[in-house]
Amino acid sequence: MQACFFLLNNVKVANIGHVKVKDGISNGYDYLCSANELMELHTFYKYQGAGNDFVIIDNRNGLFERENTGLVRRLCDRRFGIGADGLMLLQGAEGYDFEMVYYNADGNEGSMCGNGGRCIVAFAQDIGVIGSETDFLAVDGPHHARMHDRVGWVSLQMAKVDHIGRDGDAYVLDTGSPHYVKMVDDLAKYPVVAEGRDIRYSDSYRDKGINVNFVEPEEDGYFVRTYERGVEDETLACGTGATAVALAMAARAGKEGPIETPIRAAGGRLNIRFNRDGNRFTEIFLEGPAVFVFRGEIAW
Ligand SMILES: N[C@H](CCC[C@H](N)C(=O)O)C(=O)O
């Protein structure tokens, strides 16, 4: 499937020289471009993992400026842009297959994103950067990942965790990103956005922010809904959040040794495997689908 980005619709390609374009429905985005510049279109790719969706750009040529957070925000906008929970750049990195640079939808360069990590691995394989296994670098350090024979299923090793804090009844831990984990009843009807926002903007977390996961046990694992910082809304799944829930629930149940925890998110199923030895959680793997949705062209 091909998608063509809005800029082409807003600019007369026949114009010579610079034209300033303001979109009609405007939220104030301006574009300054010329016919020549319009020839320079860059390919973007859209992927999703359990409904957590991302724009991915192959930036091994360095043409996308890492500091251009306004552009990231615009591309992630669901009305004025492509629409995504986050944007990733695939960059070259010495000693690794590639580097993953992750931004939240609000344009801030975020912490680790688990579903994003799985999606960029699928992308790297799709464009021929890696085979079925990889070692890549992310903001929280090196990660190993493997594509399974099962189509679009990626297993991603996460950073070790050696501390789970408490905030009242809730669990607070960092699985590459900071997470708050709270058990609730009747999660399907729970006001995730309102309650999640209250916690995220409470005195304890306002400055740095936190991702807020609400969890309810199910026959087979847990049902999880997450309010994500940086998106400032509920997303359909959160990989580091699902991981945080699995670790917190193991601590709560007093389980030790090798543990496997299925997690159901609104957008799909994830599986978390890890080893627990007291407060030490190692060999943590986040597993789930990572699927190509479409690609298109953008000008910047
Ligand atoms: N959706 C992501 C989490 C992004 C983290 C971000 N929202 C933050 O902590 O700022 C995931 O699958 O792990």
UniProtKB/TrEMBL annotation:
**Record's catalysed reaction(s):** (2S,6S)-2,6-diaminopimelate = meso-2,6-diaminopimelate
**Do you know which Pfam families this protein is assigned to?**
DAP_epimerase (PF01678)
Q: What is this protein called?
A: Diaminopimelate epimerase
Catalytic machinery residues: 113, 238
Q: Where is this site: Could be important to modulate the pK values of the two catalytic cysteine residues?
A: 179, 228
Localisation per UniProt entry? Cytoplasm
Any one of the GO BP annotations: lysine biosynthetic process via diaminopimelate
Give me the residues that bind substrate, please.
52, 104, 114-115, 211, 228-229, 239-240
* Family the entry assigns: Belongs to the diaminopimelate epimerase family.
Question: Which InterPro entries has this protein been placed in?
Answer: DAP_epimerase_AS (IPR018510), DAP_epimerase_DapF (IPR001653)
What the protein does comes down to: Catalyzes the stereoinversion of LL-2,6-diaminopimelate (L,L-DAP) to meso-diaminopimelate (meso-DAP), a precursor of L-lysine and an essential component of the bacterial peptidoglycan.
UniProt pathway: Amino-acid biosynthesis; L-lysine biosynthesis via DAP pathway; DL-2,6-diaminopimelate from LL-2,6-diaminopimelate: step 1/1
**Where is it mainly found?**
cytoplasm
- EC no. given is 5.1.1.7
Q: Which domain of life is it from?
A: Bacteria
Please verify whether the record's keywords include Isomerase.
Answer: yes
